[in-house]
Amino acid sequence: MNSKTRHLQHFDATRCKIYDSYEQKEHVTTLKLLKIKEDDSTFNEGKTLLKRLLHDIGLKYRMVDNRHYYYEQPHIIKQRKSYLCKIRQNRANNKPVVFLDETWANAHNGKDFARVKQDTVTGGTLGGVSSLSGKGKRLIILGVGGDMGWIPKTILIFQSKKNTGNYNDKMTGEHFEELFRESLLPNVPPNSLIVMDNASFNSRIEEEMPKKVGPSQR
Known about the structure:
The protein is an alpha+beta fold. It has helices spanning 3-23, 30-39, 47-57, 74-92, 173-184; strands at residues 59-64, 67-72, 97-106, 116-118, 125-127, 138-146, 149-150, 156-159, 193-195.
């Protein structure tokens, strides 16, 4: 299990621990939360990863009346409430829900270790892993699925032009809109509710404000 998987598994558990402390009117700090999670064996990572997890959840650390505490940002509460209301309404109407997400993989990804056999002739070993040099081209993988499993013709794999940084930087709003319109919409069940995250390329401004006013714009 990699660090990203562990990170996601602790997401809801950490939120519950914080809300439990609020209900008991306890002051929540990073060190106190870390101690609580260590005691019940739900979190075995360090303080740095816990702070990163709290940031990803959407919690902010602020001072009120000379005391620091974590609080959830109002716009995140509003977004979660809106999402849950839409999901509940969609289920009441018995309409399908599908989830869209993306990830990446390097072309040269593979195992670093493998079982080998003893070579009785040379005294060495047979088999093993032949590792390719470098990570290879980066592939962006986008898929849509739900209770019905993966939806046919909606799993898209394409090569990134660059191989550095976050894969989100390689997908533009225009590219995503083209994939969404031509490959995804024609294949999802009719009247489906499509759930996606707030990646930068999942929404875009049609007409951006000019960054600098030139003489012709005055």
